[in-house]
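Supplementary Text 2. Reproducibility record for the structural model of the 379-residue chain.

All settings were left at their defaults, and a single model was retained for analysis rather than an ensemble. We include the record here because the model underlies the residue-level annotations in Supplementary Table 4.
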Amino acid sequence: MKFTITRSVFLKTLNDVSRAISSKTTIPILTGLKLVLSDTGLVLTGSDADISIESRIDATSENNDLQIESTGSIVLPARFFSEIVKRLPENTMTLEVKDNFQTLITSGSSEFTINGLDANNYPRLPEISAPQPLMLNAEVLKQLINQTVIAVSNQESRPVLTGVHFVISGAQLMAVATDSHRLSQRTLDLEQPTTTDYDVIIPGKSLVELSRMLTDDIDQVELRIAENQVLFIIGQTAFYSRLLEGNYPDTTRLIPTSSTTTVEFAAPALLAAIQRASLLSHESRNNVVRLTLDVATQSAIIYGNSPDVGNVEEVLQFSALSGENLEISFNPDYMKEALQAFGQTTVEVAFTAPLRPFTLVPSEDRDHFIQLITPVRTY
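Retained model, structure tokens:
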């Protein structure tokens, strides 16, 4: 096996695939990067058994300048190989596999020899065919992921809550995540209705890595779902993730259908106020801020307090306030992450009682995005 390639092109593909490679794995060969060279191109594969990424560099593409001398395959130690490629001196590099899987990497006057492994021992990726794959807008998918993964649980005691629940039916995709303290639910209208319904749980960690790969130059993502795997196809790259087993809790019953108090804020202004209030609340053990709404005087005041440091009080600006007077306490970190997911929009916050979960929805597109936060009991 021997080929020469433009180093920058190879490094970009290598970086994408390396997202799936972990040094902490019970299968030693998975600490390596698999390379398979055929007459049509070069395929790089990385996996940690949960996530697998396979990316292809076409021999016919002019940008790659891939020159193939002999085909073959090899598994190379990913960490060392990546560091070597990053530091090679020239714009092009040559890789040649010799006897006993010894691999020679040359660029200019620099020459490295590293030991590889037989690629036949590398686990095979599943073949996921889909009679009707789903096509998703890459920018919208990235937004959906970023808006829902904030609410996944970090606790392995309930594994299903460490993932995002995807429900696809007809012309709609719903993604929801909860850690039992907060919930985030986003709905998408699909351009092409699906004839097959899906109900799957995708690990939050997988979706975070996928989101990082959805750069501005990508328009569409193809989604395929199998029994225990999901596949996202992004251009020349295939992103596989295992699915979480189990039944996701019925989250629809958690979302209130009515409210007693509603208030509208500009999301960036409310976010900035909560960031200021949390400067002091982080110094106290309970990390809580308090919001007081007075409908009669049309006032909204936020408080942060630390017995050791001091307290903060700020009058908030809002565009509408109606219903009953309310005083409620909540974790400011949950609120900050929720507001960041709304961006520059106006957000409506709806309350039912001081100790009942409250909801946040964008004022303009309230049917497609909702977040729920459980308040904190302070007495």
